[in-house]
Automatic annotation (TrEMBL):
Protein name: PaaI family thioesterase
Natural source organism: Nocardioides panacis
Family statement: Belongs to the thioesterase PaaI family.
Listed GO CC annotations: cytosol
GO MF annotations in UniProt: 1,4-dihydroxy-2-naphthoyl-CoA thioesterase activity
Length: 138
């Protein structure tokens, strides 16, 4: 983790109980890339025994938000304003790997792309998150 704010960002202010419940374990965390692993398990399933789409959306938004916040640094904060996630493969069990990278980082908004790979390395879900940059003086 190369950014000095990373340790402060990955505390309860950004992650909290919900992200801990999801089981997200961060790897690389920079303003250019965020990686994490998490485990598909029964308490994250929908009634048909596969990972709930809302869980995929939540992991995707979490990684995009962390990356966007690291990039913003001390200039301000970010909030998600749109999350568009597609689901490609049903997943029941195993370790999933999610990677977030920026598509656009502007003065007022950022757009991040996040892909989640299943245990076989195939894309299980792919999402795009648009975030609003919030500045203290605004």
């Amino acid at each position: 983790m190369s950014d000095s704010r990373v340790d402060g960002l990955l505390d309860d202010d950004i992650t909290g109980d919900f992200v801990r419940h999801l089981g997200v374990e961060f790897g690389e965390v920079t303003g250019d890339r965020v990686t994490a692993t998490w485990t598909a398990k029964p308490d994250l399933h929908q009634p048909y025994g596969i990972v709930h789409g809302g869980v995929h959306c939540s992991v995707i938004e979490t990684l995009a938000s962390v990356g966007a916040a690291v990039w913003m640094g001390e200039r301000g904060k970010v909030v998600g304003v749109n999350n568009n996630t597609d689901f490609y493969r049903a997943v029941r069990t195993g370790t999933l790997t999610s990677t977030a990278t920026p598509l656009h980082r502007g003065r007022s908004q950022q757009v991040w792309l996040v892909e989640t790979l299943d245990p076989d390395g195939k894309v299980a879900a792919r999402g795009q998150v648009r975030l609003q940059n919030l500045y203290p003086e605004a």
